[in-house]
Design goal:
The protein is an alpha/beta fold. It is 43% helix and 16% strand. The protein folds into two domains: 2-117 and 129-141; 152-268, 3-Layer(aba) Sandwich (Trna Endonuclease, Chain: A, domain 1), CATH 3.40.1350. It has helices spanning 2-5, 18-27, 34-45, 49-52, 64-79, 104-113, 130-151, 154-167, 213-223, 240-246, 259-268, 285-288, and strands at 31-33, 82-84, 89-92, 170-175, 186-192, 196-205, 210-211, 229-234, 237-238, 254-257. Strands 4-5-6-8-10 form a five-stranded mixed sheet, with helices on both faces. A three-stranded antiparallel sheet has the order 1-3-2. It is globular, with a radius of gyration of 21 Å.
Length: 291
Protein backbone atom coordinates (compact mmCIF):
# COMPACT_ATOMS: atom_id res chain seq x y z
CA UNK A 1 0.00 0.00 0.00
CA UNK A 2 3.01 2.29 0.35
CA UNK A 3 3.08 2.86 -3.36
CA UNK A 4 -0.48 4.11 -3.32
CA UNK A 5 0.24 6.74 -0.67
CA UNK A 6 3.43 8.01 -2.30
CA UNK A 7 2.49 11.12 -4.28
CA UNK A 8 -1.25 10.72 -3.69
CA UNK A 9 -1.27 13.89 -1.60
CA UNK A 10 -0.44 15.85 -4.76
CA UNK A 11 -3.51 14.56 -6.60
CA UNK A 12 -6.48 16.99 -6.33
CA UNK A 13 -9.54 15.65 -4.46
CA UNK A 14 -12.53 14.70 -6.60
CA UNK A 15 -14.52 17.85 -5.74
CA UNK A 16 -11.66 20.00 -7.04
CA UNK A 17 -11.81 18.09 -10.34
CA UNK A 18 -15.48 18.80 -11.06
CA UNK A 19 -14.93 22.20 -12.69
CA UNK A 20 -11.98 20.87 -14.76
CA UNK A 21 -14.25 18.06 -16.02
CA UNK A 22 -16.89 20.58 -17.11
CA UNK A 23 -14.24 22.77 -18.74
CA UNK A 24 -12.80 19.75 -20.53
CA UNK A 25 -16.19 18.79 -21.98
CA UNK A 26 -16.83 22.36 -23.11
CA UNK A 27 -13.43 22.35 -24.82
CA UNK A 28 -14.36 19.08 -26.53
CA UNK A 29 -17.59 20.53 -27.90
CA UNK A 30 -19.92 19.20 -25.22
CA UNK A 31 -19.18 15.49 -25.32
CA UNK A 32 -16.32 13.01 -25.18
CA UNK A 33 -15.19 9.56 -24.17
CA UNK A 34 -13.68 9.00 -20.75
CA UNK A 35 -10.24 8.92 -22.35
CA UNK A 36 -10.82 12.20 -24.20
CA UNK A 37 -12.22 13.94 -21.12
CA UNK A 38 -9.39 12.75 -18.88
CA UNK A 39 -6.73 13.74 -21.41
CA UNK A 40 -8.22 17.22 -21.75
CA UNK A 41 -8.29 17.61 -17.94
CA UNK A 42 -4.59 16.62 -17.80
CA UNK A 43 -3.87 19.30 -20.38
CA UNK A 44 -5.98 22.08 -18.85
CA UNK A 45 -4.70 21.42 -15.33
CA UNK A 46 -1.12 20.87 -16.51
CA UNK A 47 -0.64 17.80 -14.34
CA UNK A 48 2.93 16.59 -14.05
CA UNK A 49 3.90 13.11 -15.18
CA UNK A 50 4.63 12.24 -11.54
CA UNK A 51 1.04 13.07 -10.55
CA UNK A 52 -0.42 11.15 -13.49
CA UNK A 53 1.58 8.04 -12.65
CA UNK A 54 0.41 7.76 -9.02
CA UNK A 55 -1.50 4.44 -8.92
CA UNK A 56 -4.84 4.09 -7.17
CA UNK A 57 -3.87 0.66 -5.88
CA UNK A 58 -0.55 -1.05 -5.67
CA UNK A 59 -0.05 -3.05 -8.88
CA UNK A 60 -3.38 -1.68 -10.09
CA UNK A 61 -4.00 -0.47 -13.63
CA UNK A 62 -5.87 2.74 -12.81
CA UNK A 63 -4.18 5.94 -11.73
CA UNK A 64 -5.32 7.92 -8.70
CA UNK A 65 -6.14 10.88 -10.96
CA UNK A 66 -8.43 8.78 -13.15
CA UNK A 67 -10.08 7.27 -10.07
CA UNK A 68 -10.90 10.68 -8.65
CA UNK A 69 -12.06 11.92 -12.06
CA UNK A 70 -14.55 9.02 -12.06
CA UNK A 71 -15.92 10.30 -8.75
CA UNK A 72 -16.15 13.83 -10.15
CA UNK A 73 -18.07 12.68 -13.23
CA UNK A 74 -20.47 10.59 -11.15
CA UNK A 75 -21.30 13.45 -8.77
CA UNK A 76 -21.86 15.78 -11.73
CA UNK A 77 -24.15 13.17 -13.28
CA UNK A 78 -26.20 12.83 -10.08
CA UNK A 79 -26.53 16.61 -9.99
CA UNK A 80 -27.89 16.64 -13.54
CA UNK A 81 -24.99 18.40 -15.28
CA UNK A 82 -23.71 15.32 -17.13
CA UNK A 83 -25.14 12.30 -18.93
CA UNK A 84 -23.41 9.19 -20.22
CA UNK A 85 -24.37 6.66 -22.85
CA UNK A 86 -23.97 2.88 -22.87
CA UNK A 87 -20.97 3.37 -25.17
CA UNK A 88 -19.09 5.36 -22.56
CA UNK A 89 -19.60 8.81 -24.08
CA UNK A 90 -20.18 11.62 -21.59
CA UNK A 91 -21.93 14.86 -22.48
CA UNK A 92 -23.11 18.09 -20.93
CA UNK A 93 -26.85 18.32 -20.33
CA UNK A 94 -26.73 22.01 -21.20
CA UNK A 95 -24.89 23.52 -24.16
CA UNK A 96 -23.48 26.36 -22.11
CA UNK A 97 -22.51 26.24 -18.44
CA UNK A 98 -21.06 29.11 -16.45
CA UNK A 99 -18.60 27.27 -14.24
CA UNK A 100 -18.15 30.39 -12.12
CA UNK A 101 -21.70 29.88 -10.89
CA UNK A 102 -21.13 26.22 -9.99
CA UNK A 103 -20.96 25.44 -6.28
CA UNK A 104 -19.11 22.14 -5.89
CA UNK A 105 -20.01 21.91 -2.20
CA UNK A 106 -23.67 21.95 -3.20
CA UNK A 107 -23.04 19.17 -5.75
CA UNK A 108 -21.39 17.02 -3.08
CA UNK A 109 -24.22 17.64 -0.60
CA UNK A 110 -26.79 16.78 -3.26
CA UNK A 111 -25.05 13.52 -4.13
CA UNK A 112 -24.80 12.45 -0.51
CA UNK A 113 -28.31 13.53 0.52
CA UNK A 114 -29.89 11.52 -2.29
CA UNK A 115 -28.53 8.37 -0.71
CA UNK A 116 -29.91 8.91 2.78
CA UNK A 117 -33.32 7.39 2.13
CA UNK A 118 -31.92 4.27 0.48
CA UNK A 119 -29.28 3.79 3.17
CA UNK A 120 -31.04 2.06 6.07
CA UNK A 121 -27.93 1.07 8.00
CA UNK A 122 -27.37 2.36 11.48
CA UNK A 123 -24.87 5.12 12.12
CA UNK A 124 -22.55 2.59 13.74
CA UNK A 125 -22.32 0.56 10.53
CA UNK A 126 -20.05 1.42 7.62
CA UNK A 127 -22.36 2.65 4.89
CA UNK A 128 -21.72 2.63 1.15
CA UNK A 129 -23.49 5.29 -0.88
CA UNK A 130 -24.91 4.84 -4.36
CA UNK A 131 -22.10 6.95 -5.80
CA UNK A 132 -19.43 4.89 -4.04
CA UNK A 133 -21.00 1.71 -5.38
CA UNK A 134 -21.12 3.05 -8.92
CA UNK A 135 -17.47 4.10 -8.94
CA UNK A 136 -16.14 1.06 -7.10
CA UNK A 137 -18.11 -1.45 -9.18
CA UNK A 138 -16.80 0.14 -12.38
CA UNK A 139 -13.25 -0.14 -11.10
CA UNK A 140 -13.74 -3.65 -9.72
CA UNK A 141 -14.85 -5.33 -12.95
CA UNK A 142 -12.13 -3.66 -14.96
CA UNK A 143 -9.42 -4.73 -12.53
CA UNK A 144 -10.78 -8.27 -12.53
CA UNK A 145 -10.85 -8.29 -16.34
CA UNK A 146 -7.30 -6.98 -16.66
CA UNK A 147 -6.03 -9.47 -14.07
CA UNK A 148 -7.64 -12.24 -16.11
CA UNK A 149 -6.02 -11.02 -19.32
CA UNK A 150 -2.64 -10.83 -17.60
CA UNK A 151 -2.95 -14.53 -16.81
CA UNK A 152 -3.39 -15.65 -20.42
CA UNK A 153 -0.45 -16.37 -22.72
CA UNK A 154 1.05 -13.70 -25.02
CA UNK A 155 -0.27 -15.63 -28.02
CA UNK A 156 -3.76 -15.68 -26.54
CA UNK A 157 -3.61 -11.91 -25.98
CA UNK A 158 -2.65 -11.41 -29.62
CA UNK A 159 -5.62 -13.52 -30.74
CA UNK A 160 -7.88 -11.51 -28.41
CA UNK A 161 -6.65 -8.32 -30.08
CA UNK A 162 -7.31 -9.92 -33.46
CA UNK A 163 -10.89 -10.71 -32.46
CA UNK A 164 -11.40 -7.21 -31.07
CA UNK A 165 -10.24 -5.59 -34.31
CA UNK A 166 -12.48 -7.86 -36.35
CA UNK A 167 -15.48 -6.96 -34.19
CA UNK A 168 -14.55 -3.29 -34.71
CA UNK A 169 -14.85 -3.64 -38.49
CA UNK A 170 -11.29 -4.50 -39.55
CA UNK A 171 -10.84 -7.15 -42.23
CA UNK A 172 -8.02 -9.50 -43.18
CA UNK A 173 -6.71 -9.32 -39.60
CA UNK A 174 -3.77 -11.64 -39.09
CA UNK A 175 -1.56 -12.40 -36.11
CA UNK A 176 2.02 -12.38 -37.32
CA UNK A 177 3.93 -11.89 -34.07
CA UNK A 178 7.39 -13.36 -34.07
CA UNK A 179 10.70 -12.49 -32.47
CA UNK A 180 12.90 -9.99 -34.26
CA UNK A 181 9.97 -8.23 -35.94
CA UNK A 182 10.22 -4.99 -34.01
CA UNK A 183 7.24 -5.73 -31.81
CA UNK A 184 4.76 -6.11 -34.66
CA UNK A 185 2.16 -8.69 -33.63
CA UNK A 186 -0.34 -8.45 -36.45
CA UNK A 187 -1.81 -6.59 -39.38
CA UNK A 188 -5.17 -5.81 -40.90
CA UNK A 189 -7.17 -3.47 -43.09
CA UNK A 190 -9.55 -0.82 -41.80
CA UNK A 191 -12.42 0.13 -44.09
CA UNK A 192 -14.45 3.29 -43.85
CA UNK A 193 -17.96 3.44 -45.34
CA UNK A 194 -17.00 0.66 -47.72
CA UNK A 195 -15.06 3.11 -49.86
CA UNK A 196 -11.81 3.97 -48.12
CA UNK A 197 -9.34 1.53 -46.65
CA UNK A 198 -5.91 1.68 -45.07
CA UNK A 199 -3.44 -0.87 -43.83
CA UNK A 200 -2.65 -1.06 -40.14
CA UNK A 201 -0.27 -3.06 -38.02
CA UNK A 202 -0.68 -3.62 -34.30
CA UNK A 203 1.40 -4.40 -31.26
CA UNK A 204 0.07 -6.06 -28.10
CA UNK A 205 1.74 -5.70 -24.73
CA UNK A 206 0.39 -7.27 -21.55
CA UNK A 207 1.77 -4.80 -19.07
CA UNK A 208 0.92 -3.30 -15.70
CA UNK A 209 3.18 -0.30 -16.05
CA UNK A 210 3.32 2.65 -18.44
CA UNK A 211 4.34 2.56 -22.09
CA UNK A 212 7.08 5.13 -22.76
CA UNK A 213 7.85 7.32 -25.79
CA UNK A 214 10.83 5.12 -26.69
CA UNK A 215 8.52 2.10 -27.04
CA UNK A 216 6.24 4.12 -29.33
CA UNK A 217 9.24 5.18 -31.43
CA UNK A 218 10.48 1.59 -31.67
CA UNK A 219 7.08 0.46 -32.87
CA UNK A 220 6.88 3.27 -35.40
CA UNK A 221 10.31 2.37 -36.69
CA UNK A 222 9.18 -1.19 -37.27
CA UNK A 223 6.05 -0.09 -39.14
CA UNK A 224 7.77 2.36 -41.50
CA UNK A 225 6.86 1.59 -45.09
CA UNK A 226 4.66 -1.35 -44.10
CA UNK A 227 1.38 0.28 -43.09
CA UNK A 228 -0.56 3.54 -43.11
CA UNK A 229 -0.87 3.62 -39.34
CA UNK A 230 -0.34 1.56 -36.22
CA UNK A 231 -2.35 0.44 -33.19
CA UNK A 232 -0.67 -0.12 -29.83
CA UNK A 233 -2.76 -2.24 -27.43
CA UNK A 234 -1.78 -2.64 -23.78
CA UNK A 235 -3.32 -3.68 -20.48
CA UNK A 236 -1.33 -0.87 -18.85
CA UNK A 237 -1.32 2.81 -19.73
CA UNK A 238 0.65 5.39 -21.69
CA UNK A 239 2.67 8.26 -20.31
CA UNK A 240 1.74 11.75 -21.47
CA UNK A 241 4.93 11.92 -23.56
CA UNK A 242 4.09 8.57 -25.13
CA UNK A 243 0.70 9.92 -26.18
CA UNK A 244 2.33 12.99 -27.66
CA UNK A 245 4.83 10.84 -29.53
CA UNK A 246 2.00 8.74 -30.97
CA UNK A 247 0.45 11.80 -32.61
CA UNK A 248 3.62 13.74 -33.40
CA UNK A 249 3.38 15.90 -36.53
CA UNK A 250 5.16 14.50 -39.55
CA UNK A 251 5.24 10.93 -38.22
CA UNK A 252 2.93 8.00 -39.06
CA UNK A 253 0.05 8.11 -36.56
CA UNK A 254 -0.38 5.44 -33.91
CA UNK A 255 -3.70 4.84 -32.17
CA UNK A 256 -3.41 3.91 -28.49
CA UNK A 257 -5.62 1.47 -26.59
CA UNK A 258 -4.81 1.39 -22.89
CA UNK A 259 -6.24 -0.89 -20.22
CA UNK A 260 -9.23 1.37 -19.56
CA UNK A 261 -10.24 1.59 -23.21
CA UNK A 262 -9.52 -2.10 -23.76
CA UNK A 263 -11.99 -3.00 -21.01
CA UNK A 264 -14.65 -0.70 -22.45
CA UNK A 265 -14.22 -2.16 -25.94
CA UNK A 266 -14.38 -5.75 -24.70
CA UNK A 267 -17.56 -4.84 -22.84
CA UNK A 268 -19.03 -3.10 -25.89
CA UNK A 269 -18.57 -6.20 -28.06
CA UNK A 270 -19.39 -8.68 -25.24
CA UNK A 271 -15.99 -10.32 -25.54
CA UNK A 272 -15.56 -12.10 -22.23
CA UNK A 273 -17.75 -9.49 -20.51
CA UNK A 274 -21.46 -9.98 -19.88
CA UNK A 275 -23.80 -7.31 -18.63
CA UNK A 276 -26.97 -8.03 -16.68
CA UNK A 277 -30.02 -5.84 -16.19
CA UNK A 278 -31.01 -5.98 -12.53
CA UNK A 279 -34.46 -4.96 -11.34
CA UNK A 280 -34.29 -2.55 -8.43
CA UNK A 281 -37.31 -2.22 -6.16
CA UNK A 282 -37.65 0.92 -4.05
CA UNK A 283 -40.29 1.56 -1.40
CA UNK A 284 -41.95 4.97 -1.52
CA UNK A 285 -42.66 5.53 2.19
CA UNK A 286 -44.36 8.87 1.51
CA UNK A 287 -47.07 7.03 -0.46
CA UNK A 288 -48.34 5.26 2.65
CA UNK A 289 -48.66 8.48 4.66
CA UNK A 290 -51.49 9.57 2.35
CA UNK A 291 -53.95 7.02 3.79
Amino acid sequence: MARKRKGAEHVPPYDKLMIPVLNALMNLGGSGTIEEVNEKVYELENFSEEVLQVPHKEDGSQSEVDYRLAWARTYLKKFGLLENSARGVWNLTESEIDTKQINTDEIVRHGKSNNKKSNKKSQDETSTTEIEKEVEESLEWKEQLLDTILEISPNAFERLAQRLLRESGFVEVEVTGRSGDGGIDGKGIARMSGLLSFHVIFQCKRYKGSITPSQIRDFRGAMQGRADKGIFITTGNFTRDARKEATRDGAPPIDLIDGELLCEKLKEFSLGVKTKIVEEVEIDEDFFTKF
